[in-house]
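Hey,

Quick one before I head out. I ran the complex with 6-phosphogluconic acid overnight. Inputs first:
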Amino acid sequence: MPGSGGHTRLVQDVSLTFSPVYRTKTGLRLFIHPDAPAVAAAAARHFHARASSAIAVSGRFTVALSGGATPRAVYAELVKDLDLNWTKIHIFWGDERCVPPTHSDSNYRLAMDHLLNQLPVPEANIHRIKTELGAKQAAAAYATELQTFFKLEPGALPRFNMILLGMGADGHTASLFPGTAALHDGTHLVVSNSGPNLDEERITLTYPVLNAAAWVIVHVCGHGKSAAVKAVLDTPPQPELLPMQGVQPMHGELVWLIDQAAASALD
Ligand code: 6PG
């Protein structure tokens, strides 16, 4: 668990020389890049590596995209990646705002406009969260889609090849916000949850699904996130207050890609 008490000693991992990388005591790999464009390029490289490997091994790549604004720069990099076999890639979302798919706040719309409309991803491979059903029904329908797609036995978890996550300045990730009910749900794959403003409804993957992924790539940029980065990495586990601390893949890799501004509060 990140921040397992006291200062997380960041040790330079010289084995990965292509960028400054540190390994925390919990095994989290933290890459610090000069700026946001470099973070976006790194995230696109990780996406390419994970997708190429998964397609080679299993004939498909399953990825849950994050929401918010940070992924937009990643999409601008990925849309140029014509070496990937996009027809074998299945796109999901880690969370969604309960707005129509055409709404400017829609995480689905951001990905469609800046990535998916420009690439040969089959429509059947785009697994939109159907917000028009209302938050609770949309969560139930999305959970059913996961169970069907991943051919899950009752109680089993989907193992995404990769989940891309952002983080808010309050330490939230996906739509797992501090002090909200979704943080405590260990039985559903997907739940509705209250957003940052209590009147706003969200749909989100739960911790069990996030932590079942093979690779979780966290990308965080900007000075505004520096206090949250330090708190998540450097204070004892308290996911109720800092939900990102609850992201700890059980049998997967956790990689953080941050820029120097977001790293500025770290020792
Ligand atoms: C959402 C996200 C959320 C996001 C963070 C960071 O739907 O808003 O999934 O978890 O990743 O709030 O957002 P920015 O990238 O806009 O800073």
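Residues 66-70, 94-95, 97, 107, 166-168, 172-175 surround 6-phosphogluconic acid (CB under 6 Å).

Talk tomorrow,
K.
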